[in-house]
Amino acid sequence: MNNGHRTVLVTGASGFVGRHVVPALARSGWVVRRAVRTPPRDANDVMIGSLSPATDWRAALDGVEAVVHLAARVHQQSDERAIELYRNVNIEGTLHLARSAVAAGIRDFIFVSTILVHGRSNYGRLPFREDDVLTPRGLYGNSKAAAEVGLKEIVPGSGMRVTVIRPPLIYGAGAKGNFALLKRAVLNGLPLPLAYVKNRRAFLSAENLASFILHRLSHPGDDFDVFLVADREQVSTREFVERLARAADTSPRLFWLPPLLLKMALGISGRKEAYDSLFASLELDLSKIAGTGWQQPISLDEGLRRALRQTDS
């Protein structure tokens, strides 16, 4: 405890998602202790170096009531070095932190995983559900799935509750990856081959993710629970881009390109997985989070407006 306030340790606090989650926690009365790899800038920061199976978490976890684990290795090239990094950081590093949290008497542990533990698309199947058999794709998805399995094994008899959150693409100010590419294309008036895309995909604003994390901390449930968390509206890639453009007060430049031709082009450029992100459907069954009583605070359109009007940092 800190002056009667609850203390939460946040890993990955300086990353894109962390820059949305940390202020939300602080506004709700939590004392936020940021686990950082560089010299601390704040009295509540604790330098832990790199996330690994050898990280010493004792100082960071002292007096902490809950852990929000956002840190992860992402977007690493597929080679032997990448496999080792994903294993050390996303799997062994996560499980070592969880075991350290158990030893420190932490009551709640929130782990932000990824929807990629289910795969990159539905391919005509029903929307993904929390209890579906995991079919992870890519090194990142496989590492997150393995971490989930390990966390579930740690829980029995530990006295610690673990919540796993599996988000789809997270958008917001400072987002990288596919959202940053779409945002840049829309703002610069670049043409996009999405004129006749009729898929349905889930998206999640960073503000809504932060809101659900807060809700879970104040409304804990089972000792081990998994949630698919996304905005209520699940729209086509084309509509997402159109609404992004509307939020930017501009018009998107969309054209049609044969999907097979685009798939070949992306494969040649080494971005084969981008095809699924643009053209395939990724629908989520959100009935479980609806049953928790959580209400998303902002709509898709408001989330896009915030993503555009805030300065990336």
Automatic annotation (TrEMBL):
One of its GO terms (molecular function) is UDP-glucose 4-epimerase activity. Residues 8-221 form the NAD-dependent epimerase/dehydratase domain. Pathway: Bacterial outer membrane biogenesis; LPS O-antigen biosynthesis. InterPro entries: Epimerase_deHydtase (IPR001509), NAD(P)-bd_dom_sf (IPR036291). It comes from the Bacteria. The keyword Isomerase applies. Pfam families: Epimerase (PF01370). Keywords: Isomerase. Its EC number is 5.1.3.2. Belongs to the NAD(P)-dependent epimerase/dehydratase family. PANTHER family: DTDP-D-GLUCOSE 4,6-DEHYDRATASE-RELATED. This is UDP-glucose 4-epimerase. It comes from Bradyrhizobium elkanii.
